[in-house]
From TrEMBL:
UniProt KW Hydrolase keyword: yes
Segments passing through the bilayer: none
Organism: Capsulimonas corticalis
InterPro entries registered for this protein in UniProt: Metallo-B-lactamas, RibonucZ/Hydroxyglut_hydro, WalJ/YycJ-like
UniProt entry tagged with the keyword Hydrolase: yes
Protein name per its UniProtKB record: MBL fold hydrolase
Molecular function via GO: hydrolase activity
Keyword terms, alphabetized: Hydrolase
Amino acid sequence: MIDAGIGLRLIASALATHDLLLSDLSGIVLTHEHSDHIQSAHAISKRYNVPIVANPATLNVIYRRCTDSPNIKLATGDRWSIGDLDIETFPVPHDAVEPVGVNLYYRPSGHKASIITDAGHVTDAMRAAIRGANLLILEANHDVHRLNAGVYPGYLKARILSDRGHLSNEAAVALLCEHAMTHGPHTAWLAHLSKENNTPKLALAYAKATVAVETGCPVVLDVAKRDKPSVSWTPGVKPLQLNLF
Ligand SMILES: [Zn+2]
Ligand SMILES: [Zn+2]
């Protein structure tokens, strides 16, 4: 499981839809220490003996609060193999001690999924990390105009808009377009949408219109809901790589 930022019962019922129990988890990979990513991690880890997997800096911050959970240190950039999956992390710019994005490689078919939430801007390291991904799960946190006109206090707006804040719809969709132009058709889920400064309808409509106009490339787009399981992915035929550019 990647992050555990919602309540224990919600996670348990989401796993149950796949006939899984919390005790079936092999590990909880944490992207960073903010509460909307770790809320239930300690409880699951301790109760069901599930290791928390994170880089040493993140573990260090979390374990000031959770000294008695099992853990696995995964240095940023390293890979952890579990069953048929290879899990690799890469740096993202965000106001946490050592935040990461996550790549999942499914060895039997060669499919790759990349997850980036909580990133203030798109870096070359992020572009390199998501190369060839068949599924992109990408933060589309806010609509910039909505955020600027909204009720958040100035300091919070500045934090969100900063280089170590959150990706806007515009920044996320620009990266999606780039990915489609370079790597061809893929599936993308917009994630980590702000409740105040975005709506699933707005983000999805903007992404669909922009990707169609800018790339002409078929990208299957959806929005991952904030607090319940909403999207699932069955890898189809691996898309062909485009060698046009
Ligand atoms: Zn965060
Ligand atoms: Zn977050």
